[in-house]
Design brief:
Helices cover 14% and strands 32% of the residues. The protein has 2 helices and 9 strands, in the order E-H-E-H-E-E-E-E-E-E-E. The protein has helices spanning 24-34, 61-71; strands spanning 5-9, 40-44, 76-79, 85-88, 95-99, 114-118, 123-129, 132-138, 144-151. It has a 6-stranded mixed sheet, with no helix packed on it. The chain has a 3-stranded antiparallel sheet with strand order 7-8-9, with no helix packed on it. It is globular and about 40 Å long.
Length: 156
């Protein structure tokens, strides 16, 4: 918990995390999010559920992880693995961001879920002020490449 946010860290490199058998980590996530009372819920991991980059979307996450995220009204999912910046159109109320452009870049395309995709070196700055979450993709020289704002969900 950090201020008004609960941040959940997943180790997406665990063998079988998104395999057919049940996962202790997914059970932990489900149980822990069920008891969360924070205004914001953010999940971070290395391998992205959705990506239009070189590695693409991580197999199995859309079927096993995403329903848990939806059920617990997660606001933001941050991942890396692919070396670019990409933000999704949130079809299920969840914004997914690939922010993997810290050391090198690789090609990125566009998918049906892509709102913004850029092949840039960057870091992502996230700031929460009450019912607003502001995220800014910033290049090493300080140039702002992209910004987005989320509003807290009602009834939490």
């Amino acid at each position: 918990t950090y201020g008004p946010a609960d941040v959940f860290f997943l180790d997406s490199s665990v063998p079988g995390l998104f395999g057919v058998e049940s996962s202790e980590q997914l059970e932990w996530l489900d149980d822990t999010m069920a008891s969360s009372t924070s205004q914001w819920r953010i999940v971070t991991m290395h391998h992205p559920p959705y990506s239009s980059g070189r590695h693409g979307s991580t197999p199995g996450e859309d079927e096993l992880l995403v329903p848990t995220l939806q059920r617990h009204h997660v606001d933001l999912v941050l991942a890396g693995h692919d070396h670019h910046y990409e933000r999704t159109v949130p079809p299920d109320g969840i914004t997914y961001v690939v922010s993997g452009g810290g050391c090198k870049t690789t090609k990125v395309g566009r998918s049906h879920f892509t709102a913004v995709a850029r092949r840039i070196l960057h870091f992502l700055h996230v700031d929460i002020q009450g019912d607003r979450l502001n995220a800014t993709s910033i290049q090493p020289g300080g140039q702002v490449q992209h910004r987005f704002e989320l509003r807290a969900r009602e009834g939490r």
